[in-house]
Amino acid sequence: MTEPPVEVNTVLVPVDGSDESVRAIEYAVGIAEQYEADVHALYVLGEEMSRAIETGTVEEDDVIDETESFIESARAVADDAGVALGNSIAYGFSTQRKLQHPGSAVLDCAEEIDADFLVIPREPLSGEPGEVLEKAAEYVLLYASQPVLSV
Fold first, then answer.
1. Which of 16-20, 21-25, 40-44, 86-90 has the least mean pLDDT?
2. What fold characterizes domain 10-150?
3. Average pLDDT of 118-130?
4. What b/e string do you get for 100-127 counting C-beta neighbours within 10 Å, with b at 16 or more?
5. Where are the domains of the chain?
6. What are phi and psi of 128, to 5 degrees?
């Protein structure tokens, strides 16, 4: 058996709880399965939710509880394929940091976890207000140093 042309140990998949995120998880797990790699799901919080947490309108613990249900369904997909799945949460926007953007949050995480491959959902621009990854996809495609699959 020949070695694959690219070595992949960690696949990063940013998600936001949307249907497109579910599809991206499936692709990320498929890639990880082929390369015997792990998947890291980064749940990116949208502008409304980020502001609500920063202003204290919503408790951060409540948001964590809500995102866990999505991550658990992602973990089930990964478990079915025998792929390890880690996860984290990031603010896609910030009232404190002017340069905070969903795309920069994704690339910061990719660097932090030493991701070798990224799978990012490409969502329609007419998406729901809570869906933030359409703002990140183009940025990530332009600036990522890793291979990127946009689904």
1. 16-20
2. Rossmann fold (3.40.50)
3. 65
4. bbbbbbbbebbeeeebbbbbbbbbeeeb
5. 10-150
6. -65, 155
